[in-house]
Design brief:
The complex is a heterodimer of chains A (about 525) and B (about 650). With about 525 residues, chain A is mainly α. Chain A has helices at about 10-35, 35-60, 75-100, 120-125, 135-150, 155-170, 180-210, 225-230, 240-255, 265-270, 275-300, 305-325, 330-350, 355-380, 400, 405-415, 425-435, 440-465, 480-500, 505-510; strands at about 65-70, 75, 380-385, 385-390, 475. Chain A is globular, with a radius of gyration of 22 Å. In chain A, about 60% of the residues are buried. The chains are: A mainly alpha (about 525), B mainly alpha (about 650).
Chain lengths: ~525, ~650
C-alpha cells in the first residue's frame, strides 16, 4: 500500500474557498454562542465580510494559473472569473436574504418544525424573527460552488456538488409563508437532486473504468488522466461515452436543462424568493462553470463528437422554456421557465468550441445573474396581507400604482427579451456570435426563434402592468429597505451598463478564457 | 470643364456661421418647451432670433466679400461614420449660400414683424412663431450645408415646418387636408432626392459638394442623367413644378405670413437652389438641361393659365408663384450665366411676392378674412398703403420698366432666345407668352381688388387700413420691389461668379432676335396683357361663377392635373393599399395569429406534463437520461457522424 503523502497546498490560491467554508463553521458557532437578539446582525455582517474577503482574494489571485492540492483544484482564468461572479452575485443575494423590512422578520420561517397551516404556524408567520441558520447554510453553499467551478477531478467535483446542494435543499424549505408549498419544493428538490447525483456518480465510475482500460496508464478521475486517456483513443470508447452522458445528465440537472428541468418550476415557486434568486443566479454559474470545465478540459480530445446530442438538448431546453412560459400564471414560475430557456442559450455558448464561446458563456452567466436577481428582488416587493402576490392577474395595473418599480421590472423584462441597450441583448450576442462562427447555425436559429416566443410572456406582463386598470386586488409595492434597494439597483444598473458598454467585462472574460490542465 | 472645386477653411467671424442655424433653432425649442409660460413675450423672441440671424448673416456676408477664395467651409463633427460612409456635419458659406441667407433672414425678419400683428388675435401665436423659427433654422441649414446629406436634413426640416404651418389651423378640415397633400406630394420629390443621394454615394463614394462636383466628370452620361433627373424630381416637389405642382396652391390654407415666407419667398425656391448648387451635374449633360428647361417652360405657362381663372386672391398669387418659379427653372436649365439670372429673379421675386402676399393678408385683415376677389373692388380709397405697396409688387411681377421684375425676368427671356436651334423659338416664345399672360392675370387681380365698383358682401361696412406693424414691412418690401431688380441684376451675377460653376460664359450663341427686339417685344406683350385686363375688368365682374368655354373651365380645374393625379396615382394607390391591408389581415396576421395560437395550444398541452408528482418527474428524467445515453452511444458508434 502506498504511503499517503500530504499534497502541497497553495494557501493563497485556495483562500477564497477556505474563507467561505471557515466562515460557515464560524457561523455555526455564532448560532451556539451569540444571543438570539444580535445573531441576525452578526451573521449577516460575517457572511458579507466573508464574501468581500473572498472576493478580494480572487482579485489578488487574478494572475494565478496553477493546479494545487494534489491535482484536485485548478485555479485558472475561468475559475477566478466564475468564482468572482459567484461571489458578487452571492453578495447581492445575501442583501435580499438579510432584508427584514419588506416582510417583518425576514423571508424565512421562525420555527421550521411546527406543523404547516396550524395555529402555531400562523403565529410564527406574524412577524417573529426568522431563523438565522440561513446564513451558515448559504455560506456553505457559496463555498461549495467555489470548489465546484475549480474542481480538477471528478470526485472533488462530486463532493463540491453535494456541499452546495444540501444546504440549498434545506434553504428551499424555509419560506415563512406557504409552508406546505415550500416543504414540498424542498422535498422534490432533494429527491430529484439525489437521483441526479446518482447519475453523476455512476458516470464518474464509468470514466474511472474507462481510464483503467487504457493500457500503460494508471487509472484516475482527475482531468489530466481522463484527458490523456481520451487522446489515446483506445479501441472501445463505450465506457467513455456512457460515462460522459451520465456526467452531463448530472450537471444538466443542476443547470435546469430539458428534460432534466422538471424540478425547476416547482422549486423556484416554493422556495423563499431570495433563495430562488440565489439559485437562479449562482447555481447556474456553478453548473455551467463545471460543464465548461468538464467538456473543455477532460473531454476535449473527444473532438466534440457529442455536440449534436447536447445541441438537441439545448434546442429542447429553449423550446420547453419558451413555450411553457407562454401559459404561466405565476410570476415565479414564469421566471423559472425563463431561467430554463436561458439555460438553453447558455448551452449554445458552451457548444461553441472556441475561446470566444467560452468567454461569451461566462459573460452571459454574469449578465443574466444580475438581471434575474433584480427580477426576484422586485417579486419580493409586490405583496399583500398574505405575503408575496405572485399570481400574474394580481400584477394588472401595477404600473399605475407604483410606476417606479413597475418601470424597473419592465426594464428587466425587456432585458430578458433581449432588447438592445440591455445586457440581455449583448449577452445573447456574445453566445450566438461564436456559435455561428463555430458552424452551429441551427442552434442560433433555434435560439432566435425561441427568443421571439419568449418575448410574448415577458411583454404580456409589461402590458398587464401598464395597460390594465388596477383592480381591487392589485397589491401595493412595499417600499424596500436599504438592503433590497441596494440589490435591486445594482442588478438594474448592471443590466443597463452591460447593455450599453459591455466592453470591459467582455475583455475580462476573454482574458480569462483559458483553462489549465 | 475640368476645373477643380475647392473650398477654403472658415476663419474669423465665418467660423461662427453655425450660429445662423443655431439661433432660430434654440429660439424654436424655447418657445415649444416653455409652453404657455412664453405666451406673453414668445413672438418677440421669435422676431429677435431672426433679426439676430440677419445681422450675423450680413456681417458674414461682408467678411466673405473680403476673402480671396470667396468660400468658407466649416466642419463641425462627423455626422455619420459607418464603414465607408463618411458624412460631415459641415457648413459651407459661399456667395450662393450668402445671398440665400440674406434673403431668408432679411425677408423673413420683415414677415415675422408683420406676423406679430397679423396673428395677434390668434391663441396659437407662440406656437406659430416656434414653427416659423423652426422653418428658418431648417431653411438656413438647407442652404448652408456642405454636402447633400446636410441639404437633405434641412430639406426634410422645411418639409416638416411647412406641414405644421399649412395645417396650423388644424381644426379646419381643409387646412388639415392641404397639409397632408403638401406632405405627401413632397414625399414623392424627397424620395427622388434621397435616391439621388444614394446614387452619389454608390458611384462616387461621397456626398460632399466639392468631391461630388470634382467626380462628376468621371461618371457615364447615363448615370449623370439619372442622377440629375432624380435631383430634378426632388426640386420639382419642393418648388411646386410640373408634375408635382398641385400642393402649392392648396398650401394657402395656412396663415398668410406662412404663404408669404414659405410658399412664396423662400422654401419653394429650395428647388432652384438645389439645381443651382448642383450645376456641375446639370451642366455635364445637355439632355438633362433640356428636361429642366422644358419643365420650367411648361410650368410657367400652366401657372399663368390657371392663375387667370382663379378668384381666390391667395390662390392667384400661389399660381403666380408656380409660374415665376417656372421662370427660375427655365433660367437654371439654360446653364452657364443664366444660373445667376435665375438667382437674381429668385431674389427679386422674394421681395415682390412677399410684398403682395402680405398685401393680400392686409386686404383680408380689413375684409373679415374674405379671399374672393369678385367680392372686393374699390379698396384703393380705403387702404392707401396697402394699395400703393401692392401696386409696386404688381408692376414688379409683370416686368414693367423700371421695376425689379423687368431687370430680373427680361434677361431670362433673352437667355431663352439664345439657345442654338429651333428650341430658342420654342422656349423664348414660351417665356414671352408667359410674360404677357402674367401681365393679364396680375392686372385682373389688381383691378378687381382695388378698383372698379364695390362688390362687397353685406356684412362689410367700412374696411380699414392695417396697423403700423403690418404696413411698415409692406413699405420696406415695396421699396425692395421697386429698387431690388436693378441693384441685383448689376451686382449679383458678378458676385456669384466665384461660386463653383456659376456665372461662366453663357453667350455662346447670339440670340435669334436682337436684344433690343426682345426687350421691346416683352414690354409690348406686358402692356398688351395689362391693358386687356384693365379694359375687361375696370367695371368689375359678376359675383358668381359664370358659364365658360373649354379653356377657362379647364383652367378653373387646374388644367385637370388634379383629375390626372387622382386617376393615375390616387385610385391605384388606394386600391394597392386595400389589397395590402387585405393581405396583411388575412395572410400575414392569419399566419402570425395561427402561430401564436399554435404555441399557446402546445404550451397548454405540455403544461399538463408538469403534474407536480415527483414520481412522474423522476420518470421523465429517467427517460431523458436513457435517450441521452443512447444518443451518446450512437455517437460513439459513429451513427450520428
Amino acid at each position: 500500500m502506498t504511503e499517503l503523502k500530504l499534497p502541497s497546498l497553495d494557501y493563497a490560491a485556495l483562500a477564497p474557498i477556505m474563507i467561505m467554508l471557515g466562515t460557515a463553521l464560524l457561523g455555526v458557532l455564532v448560532e451556539a454562542f451569540v444571543p438570539r437578539r444580535s445573531r441576525h446582525v452578526v451573521q449577516l455582517t460575517l457572511a458579507l465580510l466573508a464574501v468581500l474577503a473572498a472576493l478580494t482574494m480572487v482579485v489578488l489571485n487574478a494572475d494565478d494559473r496553477l493546479v494545487t492540492a494534489g491535482q484536485a483544484i485548478a485555479v485558472d482564468g475561468p475559475t477566478l472569473f466564475l468564482q468572482g461572479a459567484i461571489l458578487v452575485l452571492a453578495a447581492m443575494a445575501l442583501l435580499l436574504i438579510g432584508d427584514r423590512t419588506v416582510e417583518r422578520g425576514g423571508a424565512f420561517v421562525a420555527q421550521a418544525a411546527v406543523t404547516a397551516e396550524s395555529a402555531d404556524d400562523r403565529k410564527q408567520a406574524e412577524g417573529r424573527n426568522g431563523l438565522t441558520e440561513v446564513y451558515p447554510l448559504i455560506t456553505f453553499a457559496i463555498g461549495g460552488m467555489l470548489i465546484f467551478v475549480a474542481a480538477n477531478d471528478l470526485l472533488t467535483m462530486f463532493i463540491a456538488l453535494e456541499v452546495f446542494s444540501l444546504p440549498l435543499y434545506l434553504l428551499c424549505a424555509l419560506a415563512r409563508r406557504r409552508r406546505l408549498l415550500s416543504q414540498e419544493a424542498a422535498m422534490k428538490y432533494f429527491l430529484l437532486g439525489a437521483y441526479a447525483s446518482a447519475f453523476f456518480l455512476f458516470g464518474v465510475a464509468l470514466i474511472y473504468g474507462f481510464t483503467a482500460g487504457v493500457p500503460g496508464r494508471s487509472a484516475g478521475v482527475d482531468f489530466a488522466t481522463v484527458n490523456a486517456a481520451v487522446s489515446e483513443s483506445p479501441a472501445s470508447q463505450v465506457l467513455l461515452f456512457a460515462g460522459m452522458a451520465l456526467l452531463a445528465i448530472g450537471l444538466l440537472f443542476k443547470a435546469a436543462a430539458a428534460p432534466f428541468h422538471v424540478w425547476t418550476p416547482d422549486v423556484y415557486q416554493g422556495a423563499p424568493t431570495p433563495i430562488t434568486g440565489f439559485m437562479a443566479a449562482c447555481t447556474k454559474v456553478a453548473a455551467f462553470g463545471a460543464l465548461l470545465r468538464v467538456f473543455h478540459v477532460a473531454f476535449e480530445g473527444g473532438g466534440w463528437d457529442f455536440t449534436p446530442v447536447l445541441g438537441a438538448v439545448a434546442v429542447l431546453t429553449m423550446l420547453v422554456g419558451a413555450v411553457l412560459a407562454v401559459t404561466q400564471t405565476d410570476i415565479k414560475r414564469l421566471l423559472a421557465y425563463s431561467s430554463i430557456a436561458n439555460a438553453g442559450y447558455l448551452l449554445v455558448g458552451v457548444l461553441a468550441p472556441s475561446r470566444d464561446g467560452l468567454s461569451g458563456t461566462m459573460f452571459y452567466l454574469v449578465a443574466y445573474g444580475f438581471s434575474v436577481l433584480a427580477a426576484f428582488a422586485v417579486v419580493t416587493l409586490v405583496r399583500d396581507a398574505d405575503g408575496e402576490a405572485t399570481h400574474l392577474s394580481r400584477w394588472a395595473g401595477l404600473g399605475r400604482r407604483s410606476p417606479f418599480y413597475a418601470g424597473l421590472f419592465t426594464f428587466i423584462l425587456l432585458a430578458f427579451a433581449g432588447i438592445p441597450l440591455t445586457s440581455g441583448f449583448t449577452s445573447k450576442f456574445a453566445v450566438f456570435g461564436p456559435a455561428l462562427d463555430g458552424g452551429q447555425a441551427w442552434l442560433v436559429i433555434a435560439g432566435v426563434l425561441t427568443s421571439m416566443v419568449l418575448a410574448f410572456p415577458y411583454l404580456r406582463v409589461v402590458v398587464m402592468m401598464w395597460l390594465s386598470e388596477p383592480g381591487e386586488s392589485t397589491p401595493t409595492v412595499t417600499v424596500p429597505g436599504g438592503l433590497t434597494s441596494a440589490a435591486l439597483m445594482v442588478g438594474v444598473l448592471a443590466t443597463l451598463v452591460l447593455g450599453v458598454a459591455p466592453g470591459p467585462l467582455l475583455d475580462l472574460a476573454t482574458g480569462a478564457a483559458e483553462f489549465v490542465r | 470643364m475640368e476645373e477643380t472645386v475647392q473650398y477654403a477653411e472658415a476663419t474669423g467671424l465665418l467660423g461662427s456661421v453655425w450660429l445662423l442655424v443655431a439661433i432660430p433653432l434654440v429660439s424654436a425649442a424655447i418657445l415649444l418647451l416653455l409652453g404657455r409660460r412664453a405666451d406673453r413675450w414668445g413672438h418677440w423672441l421669435g422676431v429677435a432670433a431672426i433679426g439676430a440671424a440677419f445681422v450675423l448673416g450680413l456681417a458674414s456676408f461682408f467678411q466673405l466679400r473680403g476673402l480671396e477664395n470667396k468660400s468658407a467651409e466649416l466642419s463641425l463633427w462627423d455626422f455619420i461614420a459607418v464603414g465607408d460612409l463618411r458624412v460631415d456635419f459641415g457648413l459651407l458659406f459661399d456667395p450662393l449660400a450668402a445671398v440665400f441667407v440674406l434673403l431668408i433672414t432679411g425677408v423673413g425678419f420683415l414677415i415675422h414683424l408683420y406676423a406679430v400683428e397679423y396673428m395677434a388675435h390668434d391663441a396659437g401665436r407662440r406656437r406659430f412663431f416656434a414653427y416659423f423659427n423652426l422653418f428658418v433654422a431648417a431653411m438656413l441649414l438647407l442652404v448652408l450645408g456642405n454636402n447633400y446629406v446636410m441639404l437633405y436634413f434641412g430639406w426634410e426640416g422645411v418639409g416638416l415646418a411647412s406641414y405644421l404651418l399649412i395645417s396650423f389651423w388644424y381644426g379646419r378640415p381643409s387646412a388639415a387636408t392641404a397639409g397632408k397633400k403638401a406632405f405627401l406630394m413632397n414625399r414623392v420629390g424627397d424620395t427622388g432626392l434621397a435616391i439621388g443621394i444614394f446614387i452619389m454615394f454608390a458611384t462616387l463614394g461621397t456626398t460632399q459638394y466639392d468631391e461630388v462636383f470634382n467626380g462628376v466628370g468621371a461618371l457615364t452620361g447615363t448615370t449623370v442623367l439619372v442622377l440629375g433627373l432624380l435631383l430634378l424630381l426632388g426640386a420639382a416637389g419642393k418648388s411646386g413644378q410640373f408634375p408635382l405642382q398641385a400642393w402649392l396652391p392648396d398650401a394657402m390654407e395656412g396663415p398668410t405670413p406662412v404663404s408669404a415666407l414659405i410658399h412664396a419667398a423662400t422654401m419653394v425656391t429650395a428647388g432652384v437652389y438645389l439645381i443651382a448648387r448642383s450645376n456641375p451635374i446639370f451642366s455635364a449633360n445637355s439632355t438633362l438641361q433640356l428636361v429642366v428647361v422644358s419643365v420650367g417652360a411648361l410650368t410657367l405657362l400652366m401657372g399663368c393659365i390657371i392663375g387667370a381663372a382663379k378668384d381666390d386672391i391667395k390662390r392667384v398669387l400661389a399660381w403666380s408663384t408656380v409660374s415665376q418659379i417656372g421662370y427660375m427653372f427655365l433660367g437654371v436649365g439654360l446653364g452657364g450665366g443664366a444660373y445667376a439670372l435665375a438667382i437674381v429673379h429668385l431674389l427679386a421675386h422674394g421681395f415682390f411676392k412677399a410684398n403682395m402676399f402680405l398685401g393680400a393678408g392686409s386686404v383680408m385683415h380689413g375684409m373679415k378674412d374674405q379671399v374672393d376677389i369678385r367680392r372686393f373692388g374699390g379698396l384703393s380709397t380705403y387702404m392707401k398703403v396697402t394699395w400703393l405697396t401692392f401696386m409696386m409688387g404688381w408692376l414688379a411681377i409683370i416686368g414693367m420698366f423700371p421695376f425689379s421684375g423687368f431687370f430680373s425676368k427680361e434677361p431670362i427671356i433673352v437667355a431663352a432666345f439664345e439657345r442654338d436651334d429651333w428650341t430658342a423659338w420654342l422656349f423664348g416664345g414660351a417665356a414671352l407668352l408667359g410674360a404677357g399672360l402674367t401681365a393679364f392675370y396680375m392686372t385682373r387681380l389688381f383691378v378687381l381688388t382695388f378698383h372698379g365698383p364695390k362688390r362687397w358682401t353685406e356684412d362689410i361696412e367700412h374696411p380699414h387700413e392695417s396697423p403700423k406693424l403690418m404696413t411698415i414691412p409692406l413699405i420696406l418690401l415695396a421699396v425692395g420691389s421697386v429698387g431690388a431688380g436693378f441693384l441685383l441684376s448689376t451686382s449679383v451675377p458678378d458676385w456669384l461668379t466665384s461660386t463653383a460653376g456659376l456665372g461662366g460664359e453663357h453667350a455662346e450663341h447670339e440670340p435669334v432676335l436682337s436684344h433690343l427686339v426682345i426687350t421691346t417685344l416683352s414690354l409690348l406683350v406686358t402692356v398688351l396683357g395689362a391693358g386687356l385686363a384693365w379694359f375687361l375688368f375696370r367695371a368689375g365682374t359678376a359675383t358668381a361663377s359664370q358659364p365658360a368655354g373649354v379653356l377657362v373651365t379647364a383652367a378653373r380645374r387646374n388644367l385637370y392635373t388634379d383629375a390626372v393625379n387622382e386617376a393615375v396615382f390616387e385610385k391605384p394607390g388606394i386600391f394597392l393599399t386595400r389589397a395590402l391591408v387585405f393581405l396583411d389581415n388575412r395572410g400575414i396576421d392569419g399566419l402570425v395569429n395561427g402561430l401564436a395560437a399554435g404555441v399557446g395550444g402546445g404550451s397548454g398541452r405540455l403544461r399538463r406534463l408538469q403534474t407536480g408528482f415527483v414520481r412522474s418527474y423522476a420518470t421523465s428524467i429517467l427517460a431523458g437520461a436513457l435517450l441521452v445515453m443512447a444518443a451518446f452511444l450512437a455517437v460513439q458508434a459513429g451513427w450520428l457522424a
